[in-house]
Design goal:
Helix content: over 70%
Shape: elongated
Distance between the termini: 80 Å
Largest sheet: none
Order of helices and strands: HHHHHHHH
Structural class: mainly alpha
Strand content: under 5%
Number of helices: 8
Number of strands: 0
């Protein structure tokens, strides 16, 4: 068993080595306690400044597009089976992005009526292909 002096010495050296981590932990605990108030403030601010927040978000994503694409490519190479399953699911479900890609355009550039018409066409093509088998 350690003597009280040794324990105090150990704690002071440990605290000196881990001071930043201890402070971060304390801040995290305080944030968790005040999270409800923070969320309410954030929601109120975003509701009051909707256009500004949207512009900030768009600016961030356009400025960091290369980094996001590189991170996605890295993840895709590390998880090829998950990426293939996602593409397969998107294709089978005829999601908007897939249908728009088949039209040669981006999703936001294609009207909903045209999207639905192309989706029906793709379903018919699949049905005809199955019936030929």
């Amino acid at each position: 068993m350690r003597c009280p002096g040794c324990a105090r010495e150990y704690m002071t050296t440990w605290l000196a080595a881990n001071h930043a981590r201890v402070l971060a932990r304390r801040r995290l605990v305080r944030r968790v306690k005040n999270r409800g108030q923070e969320n309410a403030r954030n929601v109120a601010y975003r509701a009051a400044n909707l256009e500004k927040e949207h512009a900030r978000s768009v600016a961030y994503y356009t400025a960091h597009a290369d980094q996001r694409k590189a991170a996605y490519a890295k993840w895709k190479s590390a998880n090829p089976e998950v990426a293939r399953a996602h593409v397969r699911r998107v294709t089978l479900e005829l999601r908007d992005a897939y249908v728009a890609a088949r039209l040669g355009a981006r999703t936001k550039d294609v009207p909903k009526e045209l999207m639905e018409a192309k989706r029906v066409e793709l379903k018919l093509k699949r049905l005809i292909k199955e019936m030929k088998k």
